[in-house]
Amino acid sequence: MRRSQYFLPTLKENPAEAQIVSHRLMLRAGMIRQESAGIYSWLPLGFRVLQRIEQIVREEQDASGALEVLMPTIQPADLWRKSGRYDDYGAEMLRIKDRHEREMLYGPTNEEMITEMFRAGVKSYRDVPRMMYHIQWKFRDEVRPRFGVMRGREFLMKDNYSFDLDYEGAKQSYNKMFVAYLRTFARMGLKAIPMQADSGPIGGDMSHEFLIVAETGESQIFADRDFLDMDWKDQKVDYQDAEQIGGIVKHFTSRYAATDEKHDPAKCPLSPDRLVEARGIEVGHIFYFGTKYSKPLGCVVSGANGEQIAVEMGSYGIGVSRLTGAIIEASHDDAGIIWPEAVAPFKVGLINLRSGDAKCDAACADIYGKLRQAGIEVLYDDREETAGGKFADMDLIGLPWQLIVGPRGLAAGKVELKERRTGKRDELSAEDALARLGRPAA
Ligand code: ATP
Ligand code: MG
């Protein structure tokens, strides 16, 4: 993509309305635009990141055996009356009426709808277990929408739902999702710590929130230092191997981690030097709730002896749009964003230090063409701007690599390759630079 043909309205100044760094940087990097409180448009650069994140989430859901579906954003109120949540949900739910005066709502979540959908399509115990998910916009009329996409009113969520015959089955589905979450967040360069969360009237220990450590997080967390020290590189998993999956879950749940809602200093086994007290951002939540929805909605299957069994369910959410902000909170410096390669909008920023100079233009055009041919995503700053302005913009938008081409280097047959994360610069030939960029990420 040539910058001269892109839509990337970057800002030099910090917008006054943004209180936290990710919100400031998303606005300054031209990623999003607020349309009304807690409701955003995604501009080209921001939308690319959102799609990257969505795709990683999708791939790990698929790998776990979950099936992707797409349910609508608008739901009938009657469905929610069956579960009793229409009245319980309160002011967070956006309620609307269609032209026939039928009561509708903009879905804040989809338990009712998916339970109904599953009920209508299954008959016997042979039809379970199943997991189904979708990645869809939600609306919650939050009391205080704030921090940009971190607490929006309209936001993109991945929500998965599991259907099992009994508690043991439900536990296995839960464990699969637990592991899928570890893998999903690790691929984005995040250490998302699973923490025991409130399981409400259902009780039990099958409710975990996944939080990343960040100063601006809304929750207070207490966790074993091990979580930050351990190696999060993903390992191969076999989702059919219940023992292996259970082992990974145990490895993580055997260490202490709790948010302030659950933390009990009297029960915390950690010595002060092993206890990390910090702020955290919730990026996902997994939750087992048994027959809470299947019973009222009649989602039953017949067992081997013809008996009627209400299916055991769980739900598993990831804040896809919140993750764009959360990743920035975890990965930035004073100059701007530092994208982990897996979610970067482009891998390389090509900077022409003297656009209009025939040699620089020709060398950049050649490199640009070769990068594209090699399938390496590149944003080429071909504008007639000052070098300083181009550097600042490129640092701000945080692409992992910058390839800098100027008249002095070219005279010596060199270009410069800068790694955004470390700031490390190397002078090398264009061929060597291309070869380096062609290698898969370490
Ligand atoms: P919170 O306590 O932050 O309000 P929640 O318990 O309401 O979260 P869930 O219903 O479990 O959240 O939703 C699943 C995920 O969706 C959360 O883990 C979070 O990452 C994301 N999420 C929830 N509310 C919002 C919001 N208002 N804006 C952006 N993402 C959100
Ligand atoms: Mg909430």
Q: Summarize this, please?
A:
The chain is α+β, with helices and mostly antiparallel strands and 442 residues long. The protein contains 13 helices and 23 strands. It binds adenosine-5'-triphosphate and magnesium ion (MG).
Characterize the structure shown.
- The protein has 442 residues and is an alpha+beta fold.
- Helix content is 31%, strand content 27%.
- The protein contains 13 helices and 23 strands.
- The chain has helices at residues 21-28, 44-63, 77-83, 85-88, 111-121, 167-187, 226-229, 242-253, 320-330, 358-373, 387-397, 407-411, 430-438; strands at 32-36, 39-42, 67-68, 74-76, 94-97, 103-106, 130-139, 154-164, 192-196, 207-213, 219-224, 257-259, 275-290, 300-302, 308-310, 312-319, 332-333, 336-337, 348-352, 378-381, 401-405, 415-419, 425-428.
- Strands 3, 7, 8, 9, 10, 11, 12, 13 and 16 form a nine-stranded mixed β-sheet that branches. The chain has a five-stranded mixed β-sheet with strand order 20-19-21-22-23, sandwiched between helices.
- Helix 6 (167-187) packs across helix 8 (242-253).
- The radius of gyration is 24 Å and the shape is globular.
- The two termini are 25 Å apart.
- The mean pLDDT is 96.
End-to-end CA span: 25 Å
What fraction, in percent, of the residue positions are helical? Answer: 25-40%
Strand fraction band? Answer: 25-35%
Q: Which stretches are poorly predicted, pLDDT < 50 over at least 5 residues?
A: none
The small molecules bound here are:
adenosine-5'-triphosphate, magnesium ion
Largest sheet: 9 strands, mixed
Shape: globular
Radius of gyration, in Å, reads: 24 Å
Strand segment count: 23
Protein structure class: alpha+beta
The tally of helices reads 13
Mean pLDDT: 96
